[in-house]
Amino acid sequence: MLAKIQSLITLSSISALLASSVCSQLAAADSKPYIAPDFTKTKPVKLEVRQQGGRTGQYLVYATNEGVEIEMIQGGGRVILQWGHMDQFQIYMPMTKRMEDALAHPLASERKRLLKLELDPVLPMSSLEEGTTNIHNLIEAYIEAVVDVEDWLEGYEISQKMALDRTPVTIIQNFYSIAVNLFVAGEHKKALNLLDQLVAARPASESGKESLIVAQSLLSLRLFEPSYSLYRAIASSGDETQAKEALYICAYLSMELGNGESAQYLKKAQAIPDESNATLGTSEIVLGVQAFQQGDSALALKHLGHGLALVKPTSHIRQIGLHYNFLSYENLENEEISTSILDEMKLFFPDGAFTAKLTTQTETL
Is 73 within a domain? Predict the structure, then answer.
């Protein structure tokens, strides 16, 4: 699930970076592999180790690039376990009073600070297998506090201290959201780097789905350039239905960006056989935008009306259709209908960037 998204800003220089990096990661077969952090210099942490058969004790545990090493305090020596081969052991973070107080603190900023002190040393342990540790749940609580206070830079730093290819998806999903918010906050290079890492590290079925959510979020925020680059990649790598809709959205974004590429995307999309309501609705809305930009508001309204009847009420594409529906009626000087359209946008998309743009526009008239 996407975490909260901050207020809109304008991006002007990210397109080339994304096109050369994110697109190649998603679409190219020879994309660069993910490189996990180097854990060779991480400090050991005293953790509770439970062995199959009932033996339990607290030991110093070292995270390594290959697994963990458990220092047997009594008797000397170390037990070396590889990631993914720990079925005889469970490794737990002791639930001390400090940890309990940190988790229970009512103020999110203080909860974040306290949890960082407790959990920063064990972030490499996110590679432990699910079901063998409580560390995953504790890391999720830490990230939740980071999201609550909208500290996206700290969220990014957390992601750089764990192996993203071995970390459970319940933790990973937060990082796609953090990448979006880094774009919004103007941290373009960090956002791009995190997206690159996620796409390279995670299974294609997961990264493709999450990249689509990121692209939709960027589009809803009117961050057209990074959204365009992601949709281009999705159009190249998705199934036919997903590719057709992505191509239509690329055509729309090309119109917004004025890059002259909308015709080729429309042609490619129309060549793919798919008659789902969502795709038909998207195509009609894009044709409506095209007609509007060509100065034919009446034709625009015809296409937009068909499209809006087919897409779901909360679809991110619907925002675009309503936006241009408003503008078309404004061109025809039908203020009553345009006002009702804006009221609908405020109802269904109260925090949307398209709604905000039109609200600001009407308030300054």
Answer: yes
Q: Does residue 203 fall inside a structural domain? A: no
Domain that holds residue 66: 45-93
pTM for the whole structure: 0.73
What phi and psi values does residue 198 have, to the nearest 5 degrees? -65, -45
**10: closest CA among 361, 256, 321, 288?**
256
Q: Say if 273 falls within a structural domain.
A: no
Q: How far apart are CA 144 and CA 3, in angstroms?
A: 9
The half-sphere exposure of 238 on its side-chain side, counting CA atoms within 13 A, is 23
Q: Which residue has the higher pLDDT, 33 or 37?
A: 37
Residue 151 has pLDDT above 50, yes or no: yes
Chain centroid to Cα 186, Å, comes to: 15
Question: Does some domain include residue 113?
Answer: no
Give me the pLDDT at residue 73, please.
64
CA distances in angstroms from 34 to 20, 163, 176, 198, 289, listed in the order given:
17, 9, 16, 8, 39
Q: What is the DSSP letter of 33?
A: P
The one-letter amino acid code at 5 reads I
Q: How far apart are CA 196 and CA 18, in angstroms?
A: 9
Give me the number of domains the chain comprises: 1
